[in-house]
Amino acid sequence: MPCLRLRRQTSSKASTMSNWQTPTEDLGYWLQCLREADPAQRMHAAMVLGLMGPQAQCAVPALVNALQDDDLQVRRLVMAALSEIGPGSRAAVPALVAALRDRHEVVRRRAAVGLGEIGPEARAAVAALVLALRDSSAMVRRWAAASLGEIGPKAVSAVPALIELLREPSLITRAVILSSLSKIGPDGLSALVLGLQDVEIPVRRSVALALGRITPTTEHVVEALRRCLDDPEPSVVEAATASLALLRVSVQPVAVGAAPGP
């Protein structure tokens, strides 16, 4: 049965998918649509499966196969659907990793977004996302950084690459990186502290700000921030002061070689 024949009957359900109590009754129909010859029908199916969200988890294998679709827009909507399904799409991780190498920017970007939506279950994608931090597209780089943060502590190996990306001119991208570093957490602190010695002012300032937002902190971090109070760049000093205040630590500078206080 051609899928278009039932599109009008099912459109009202698609518009209220969040209240759909028994999606499995129609899931087979939409999976059939995903295999139709008409790209418009395949796009429609991918869109509806995405609207089902986590309730469409059993459609993941079919959606993974659809990532090989010849139509760019179908692939884009399939990746959006996998993103909406979230952690239940973990079986799609290898396919999304492969999509990070697609020649179309929108596909690479959607793949990065999808991996972030899967979260810690996408930890096998960390190495590929680190490579994506060097993508020619600023948006792909930004979403790759964001997704590493969503993977969390399992992405600790990405910390050096994220610090390197703090040289990005975009304030939004740097803010995303800082957020990701804070989500990766204490395991990335040692590598992050090294960024306080970077020759680039924006990197030192950004790292100083990030360290105040990662808790619990360590004495090593506190001492590094206090030494930043002697930085020749006022904006770095201001960032270190703000972070020390967040950590409820005295802002008195520590002279080089001085013994730490009690």
Description:
- The chain is mainly alpha-helical and 262 residues long.
- It has helices spanning 4-15, 24-33, 39-52, 60-66, 72-85, 93-99, 105-118, 126-132, 138-151, 159-165, 171-184, 189-193, 201-211, 219-227, 234-246.
- The chain has 3 domains: 1-84, Leucine-rich Repeat Variant (Alpha Horseshoe); 100-184, Alpha Horseshoe (Leucine-rich Repeat Variant), CATH 1.25.10; 198-256, Leucine-rich Repeat Variant, CATH 1.25.10.
- Helix content is 60%, strand content 0%.
- The longest helix has 14 residues, at 39-52.
- The radius of gyration is 23 Å and the shape is elongated.
How does the SSE layout of this entry go?
Elements: H1 4-15, H2 24-33, H3 39-52, H4 60-66, H5 72-85, H6 93-99, H7 105-118, H8 126-132, H9 138-151, H10 159-165, H11 171-184, H12 189-193, H13 201-211, H14 219-227, H15 234-246
Helix pairs in contact: 2-3, 3-5, 4-5, 5-7, 6-7, 7-9, 8-9, 9-11, 10-11, 11-13, 13-15
Question: What would you say about this model in short?
Answer:
The chain has 262 residues and is mainly α. It has 15 helices and no strands.
Strand content: under 5%
CATH architectural type of the largest domain: Alpha Horseshoe
Mean pLDDT across all amino acids:
84
Question: What are the segments in which pLDDT stays under 50 over at least 5 consecutive residues?
Answer: 1-23, 254-262
Shape: elongated
Helix content bin: 55-70%
Number of structural domains: 3
Main β-sheet, in a few words?
Answer: none
Fourth CATH level, the homologous superfamily of the largest domain: Leucine-rich Repeat Variant
CATH class of the largest domain: Mainly Alpha
Helix-strand sequence: HHHHHHHHHHHHHHH
Distance between the termini: 78 Å
Structural class: mainly alpha
Rg over CA atoms, rounded to whole Å, is 23 Å
Q: What's the β-strand tally? A: 0
Output the CATH topology of the largest domain: Leucine-rich Repeat Variant
Q: In DSSP terms, counting alpha (H) and pi (I) runs of 4 or more, how many helices?
A: 15
